[in-house]
Amino acid sequence: MKNFILVGLVFLVLVVGGNSLFVIKQTERAVMLQFGEIVQPDIQPGLHVKIPWVNTVRKFDGRILTEDSPQQRFLTAEQKFLEVDSYAKWRIKDVRQFYVSTGGDTAIAGSRLSERINDGLRDQIASRTLVEVVAGERDQLMLALTAELNETTVADLGVEIIDVRVKRIDLPDDVRQSVYDRMITERNREAQDHRSRGDELAIGISADAERRAVIYRAEAYRDAEQIRGEGDAQATRIYAEAYSKDPEFYAFTRSLNAYRATFSSKGDILLLDPDSEFFKYLKGGDLPQ
Description:
Number of helices: 7
Low-confidence stretches: none
Shape: rod-shaped
CATH class of the domain at 65-177: Alpha Beta
CATH architecture of the domain at 65-177: 2-Layer Sandwich
Strand content: 15-25%
Number of strands: 9
Largest sheet: 4 strands, antiparallel
CATH superfamily of the domain at 65-177: Band 7 domain
Order of helices and strands: HEEEEEEEEHHHHEHH
Helix content: 55-70%
Mean pLDDT: 81
């Protein structure tokens, strides 16, 4: 009988001890309840003690979780529809608020986060153009959305948004071709603008080059005429100095040049007075010595 009682006491101690001790892992967050009321909101990792059948411990995943939102259709500032597929990275920040708002159910928390993310994406995309959403300002959009969500999710749900990212952005099938056509038209218009500006610059450059060419030719002709005039003046001066030393020889030379020019053709006929000064040196007299 004593052995039976002893075994029963040992069993009771083991049961009570097993229900009194619990372990919180590094990857977990937990709260302790007493008859459904939170008495310890954020239990730290390690070994802890509770009152059996009085205290209840609820454990939650404390790691970064992923909420994959379903694809949604949003309107841009240009009133163009976009099919957006996004996801969010989040973790529990305030364990008490998380338990109170979701009952400790991560599925409920993820569903409420998904709704808020879609609302935030709708507002952010509605204030931007198609090009800004797709390429120009995607990173700024995600950062602004993350900051905006964290202003309310910690206080309302007890969770912190680590990051929000867009996996894919597509155009709906019913508007895709019209958007592509509009983009092609805009690109063609921009290309034509660039060509027009290029043609305008080319005309200006060509006109300037022609103007400079005219100026350079005029300056070159002016310099050439100036040099030619200086050369003629110098030649005249040299001739004058040379002829002034023997005027008679100069007259004789001029007469020979005149004879050569006059009688260069056999068919020429010249009617002159035989006593003319023109035949002075042909009569054989007064030749310069």
